Amino acid sequence: MNTLVVFVVVILAATSCAVRACPPSDRAALLAFKAGLHEPYLGIFNSWTGADCCHKWYGISCDLETRRVADINLRGESEDPIFERAKRTGYMTGTISPAICRLTRLSSVTIADWKGISGEIPRCISNLPFLRILDLIGNKLTGPLPTDIGRLQRLTVLNVADNLISGTIPKSLTNISTLMHLDLRNNKISGELPLDFGRLGMLSRALLSRNQLSGTIPASISQIYRLADLDLSLNKLSGPIPASLGKMAVLATLNLDCNNISGSIPPSLIVSAISNLNLSRNSLQSFIPNVFGPRSYFTVIDLSYNKLRGSIPPTILSASYIGHLDLSHNHLCGRIPAGSPFDHLEASSFSYNDCLCGKPLRAC
To answer: DSSP 3-state assignment of 168?
Structure first.
């Protein structure tokens, strides 16, 4: 009788372990994903053994109830002990296998900063209905963003910065009403910004610098109430700056430097919530708006390398704060105002203008 009891207990324990393990289909999908990658230095995949992929598989987390794989978190730069022991950052080659799309309960996919992972983003990634985070920064991914990426209706973070991604921004992207962080920096993305970019109503950061984007800045961006950081620098954008950008409630950083933007500086930018304003290296003309006041608070305001003319506006002395100011390489004339912030600026902030004078330049 005692032998039978022990036997039943053993069987029940084995059954319980089998139930608690991840499904064999998820395990097979992870192993197929692993097969497409080569990580020669750290051995991060050494732990990917055994029947239960939810148990101590490096970078893998599962849903506690369903035991389905919920998160893949593989970072090539980390404070994890595995990196500290190796005394190096990660390096991985290979491609991201479409087998990842068989993990249909994925909530987050982070495969970041491995420097050598190439190939395209699997198009089927748009079929993961629960995906909230897609972070593929710092690899050598090529090809376009998936055309139907807009199907990811729970996505909050899309980060593919520092890759070699080409093509245009998919029109479906603006369907992702949940998106809060968009980072496409330092790729080869071309074409125009979607005219309905403003549909991304939850967006707080839009970082698209160092691409090959052309066309104009969509005025609809100003409809994104939560947008705090807009970086469109180092592209090929043209046309005017929408004045409505200066009326955005929480926009604090606006980087439009190194484009082909023309027209005048909208006065609204000078009396806005923006504290970091970089409009340098464009083709802006006309005068610097003479509308500075107590609402003008700038840690940085860079208007250098444009075609601005006229004098430095006298109201600039009434700004509540200006940390760094650069007006160099324009066509400005007249006396540099005396007082803050001009008493702490160097000559390089005013050099290469037509006829500016006064401290810190030559006397008038």
So the answer is: strand
What Cα–Cα distance (Å) separates residue 238 from each residue in 45, 90, 216, 284, 358? 47, 39, 5, 10, 34
Under 8 Å between Cβ of 165 and 141 = yes
Query: CA-to-CA distance for 70 and 48, rounded, in angstroms?
Result: 16
Name residue, tokens 């980060």. Answer: 159
Q: What does the DSSP assignment read for 7-47?
A: HHHHHHHHHHHHHHSPPHHHHHHHHHHHHTEE--SS-GGGG
Give per-residue pLDDT as tens, 163-205.
999 999 999 999 999 999 999 999 999 999 999 999 999 999 9
Q: What is the DSSP letter of 142?
A: B
Please give the backbone phi and psi of residue 245, each rounded to the nearest 5 degrees, phi first.
Answer: -60, -30
Question: What's the CA gap between 109 and 149, in Å, rounded?
Answer: 14
Write out the two tokens for 187.
């790729």
pLDDT tens-digit profile of 10-41?
Answer: 333 333 344 578 999 999 999 999 999 999 99
